Amino acid sequence: MASTSDPSTLSAEAESFTSMQGDVEAIGSHCQYTYCNVLDFLPFRCESCRGTYCLDHRTETGHKCPKAGEWAAALRKAASTSQDAAGKPTLATGTQCSQPSCKTFINTLNAVGVSCQGCNRQYCLKHRLREDHDCAKLVPIGARPAQGPSQADKAKAALSRLKLWSKDKQASVVPRPKPSSAATRVAATNKLKQAAKGDDKIPVDKRVYLYVEAEASTTSSKLPKGSFWYGRDWSVGRMLDAAAKGLQVENVNNRVEGEEERLRIFHVEAGRLLNFSEKVGDACVTGNTIVLLRGIGPAP
Fold first, then answer.
1. Is the CB of residue 274 less than 8 Å from the CB of residue 265?
2. What would the pLDDT profile of 101-157 be if each residue is shown by its tens digit?
3. In this protein, which residues make up the domain named AN1-type (predicted)?
4. 21, 68, 83, 182: which could form a disulfide with 60 (CB 3.0–4.6 Å)?
């Protein structure tokens, strides 16, 4: 075994130590701060001035960065640009509502797009209903040539079914007799208001109280009835959704294309079907009766 005092051994150890020193210095970097220049094995880079610094001078304040805040400002600008591009599309990147008179961009952060199953086009929330964009007059995108009865023939057939239904079910939907005196009318209205149910968020002065029924073929149970209030500014389509939910009637209007399974609202006093786009306050008054019908066709 070689002695620890052997000159050859000491020379080998010295050479090994000297070689290691060079390798270690090659790994790290010197701090570029003027008054530091310390060797750091895990140096930090400043993203603003692109300099290399030690742990003590890694911050912009620590090394008195000449371009302090430049990196953070660039990040904020990039984030703002991406948000503006997503929220405010241009003619080249955005999708416009398919209603010709509407200028709303859809499928953005500010406005969603709704696909119409009737004409296979996309619309904004304002024109999502078929009545709002004249869906009946549009040829569906990608549709095959029409075969079978025309839209006019379907409308006539729907009107015939409506007249037949009105005649057969007249006893079930005849308007309630009008009270003979003002006091009696007030009492009947108060009784309706006490029994009615609805959304409590609707102000009292904005409510329309109605008798609601569902025709027997609309549901498998016995003819359901109820008293409800709805918002005067609501659309008839929104009232239909609330009425179907209140009477527990299945509503598949948003999932089917044909009229065989779609629900419609029949206004007894007016003797007509209501359009989904009508306002409740314009079509009905407190004390009226509406009936939910299925497969009766669009409003003539």
1. yes
2. 888 888 877 788 888 988 889 999 999 998 888 888 888 887 665 555 555 565 566
3. 25-73, 91-143
4. 68
Residue 145: phi and psi, rounded to 5, are -55, 140
Structural domain contains residue 300: no
User: Do residues 286 and 159 both lie within one domain?
Assistant: yes
pTM: predicted TM-score of the whole model, two decimal places: 0.44
CA dist., res. 272 & res. 243, Å (int): 18
Does 194 lie in the same domain as 159? yes
* Phi, psi at 51, each rounded to 5°: -90, 165
Q: Based on the fold, state whether residues 202 and 233 are members of the same structural domain.
A: yes
Q: Quick one: 173 and 107 in the same domain?
A: no
Take residue 127 and report the two structure tokens written for it. 């024109």
Residue type, 23: D
126 lies in the same domain as 244:
no
